[in-house]
Give the backbone structure.
Amino acid sequence: MARFWRPGSEKPDSSSSYPSAARDDDYSEGVPFAMPSSYQSGYMSIEKQRQSLPIYKQQNSLLYLVENTSTTIVIGETGSGKTTQIPQAGWADGNQLIACTQPRRIAVQTVAARVAEEMHVNLGLEVGYSIRFEEISTPGVTKIKYLTDGVLIREMMEDPLLTKYSVIMVDEAHERSVSTDMLLGLLKKIQRRRPELRLIIASATIQATSIAAFFDNSKQRQLVDKDKSLPSRKPAILSVEGRSHTVLIHYVEEPVDDYLRAAVSTTLLIHKMEPSGDILVFLTGQDDVDAALQLISDEAENGSEGIFVLPLYAGLPRSDQELVFSPAPRGKRKIIVSTNIAETSVTLEGIVYVVDTGFSKQRFYNPIADVEALVVAPISRASAQQRAGRAGRVRPGKCFRLYTEDFFMHEMQAEAVPEVRRSSLVSTILQLKALGIDNIMRFDWLASPPAETMVRALELLYAIGVLDSDAKLTSPLGLQIAELPLEPMVAKMLLASAALGCSNEVLTISASLSVQSIWVSGKGRLKEFDEARERFAAAEGDLITYLNVYEAFLASKKSAQWCHQNCINFQAMKQVLDIRAQLSRLLQRLGIPLKSSGKEIQAIQKAVASGFFVNASQLEVSAEGDLYKTVRGGLKISIHPSSVLFRATPKWVVFKSVMLTDRHYMREVTAIDPAWLTEIAPHFFQCRK
Ligand code: ADP
Ligand code: MG
């Protein structure tokens, strides 16, 4: 059991029981905290809520700044109203729109829904949104559009100066995702051609000065004629005052060895020992969240009543998203088990307790082995502070950190490294190329990525035939790959499938790879899950297995019940259908015919190999067991237990992604014949041998 102490209090001796340190706080001393009546009876009315937001008081300053400066940087704590209120301030000029970008799809959806509700309009009319494969807006009617930064970058392919928009707000800039950083660089370029465009950059933390310096054009030569009506080119900074309550921090005394179990037991203890107030638990990914939910509900059957437990992660279906934002049923305590999403992206009301495991899933790129892996790694101190802050929205709260204070002080980094410095840049560079930015090395980044990573990305794009030897997009392949809203290697696989006569099948595979996961995982149902997967498993690997699932789903007449019986995510399958239809229209537009290979699986495997040959790996039997070695980079890697090939050991495989835990694991694996490799990519494999 995790034991906690609070800084500033005496460290409890090991015999005292939990929560020793927590006991001497203001609640347990018998000082009743006066809850606002609004909180007791559910939440405030929407109108009242809006007016009580800190940003509301600064609306005039904001309007003034945006009117008079090209770039306004807004800093305000999570929950101060930046995302929902700023776009409503009222600048939509004539026929132009206001765009507001988010790093995450789920934030786009929930925020757009919330703002439509605040404005008493139907979502998709005055307020719309756009995420990859889902556009909910009405041309000519929509005035405010929420979208992911990736989608806004895509829009530049058709409209390079984004002339549709009069104001563009880049939200959550502190997260420093690759797309956000890339977007900031692109917007800076657009600003030189469109000095009347207003940018708002919103951030939850104070790194405003570097962003302000980046956007400071005041000393640059003006590209457009001097015009007195144009806004000032010196960025302005607006700080929105916060209004959060104090949050008491508790640390564990000793490191915990299983953060998931520690999180579950801590949550249940809070429920048992602490006065009312909702609990927010931070875990790393959907699989963690599902497992924790299962553990909590198992426990709840043994007596922890009065709780209402909900998951929150990126792939959460729309219907479940609403539950997370509405009050718990009367007399129940809401427990939200979330990934990093709840750190700043979405605002949850009513949270009084936070359980912070101290981890999140992060991308790490290793340019030597040339692999990008997802790693569960410690968060930064800045993130830890954000997470704790979630507990202080409605009244003083508490944060239980499942790591020691020493770890917080000495092991955690102050700030996270911007993602461009720790990811593969293959997609990014392809997009820059598609936007006509030829000199990639000189692109203006807020933080420049390592030159080596860029060189590796250029090499790879050359290897898959997207760039020619002058680093120009090839025609038609490079142009087509850039056009498809898929990762470059998936797009390559799909395009290759046409010539192999199996585009119909590979279309399904590409759509399946574009959703979060088609399986309902859940460590709690492991056996059931394994059996279900066995039913569809193909000896050729995971991608062909997706095809089997899809066909069985169609045969079931798209039945939700069938999905449930087979541990398949019905929502995800509906998305697959929808994405498949969209991709099919795109292929048609590119003039690529749909052909079916019927039962001929080998053609499909070949198409997969054509996309992912750079990840080809060969089995090596050694003392350590069956390990694979990547052809490029020579990395030792195992098949992940979630793969249908986990127990099989084909001699040669290609994979889609890598996870790093105790070792490197490949996911979404397909068996291949090595003879195809020299056929598919002679230049690549010859020069490596
Ligand atoms: P910020 O962007 O500054 O973090 P937001 O604009 O997201 O703040 O949130 C402001 C307020 O709007 C929150 O405190 C919350 O009360 C409310 N809110 C935001 N999103 C939702 C939602 N999906 N459902 C209900 N309330 C919401
Ligand atoms: Mg926000």
The chain has 26 helices and 22 strands.
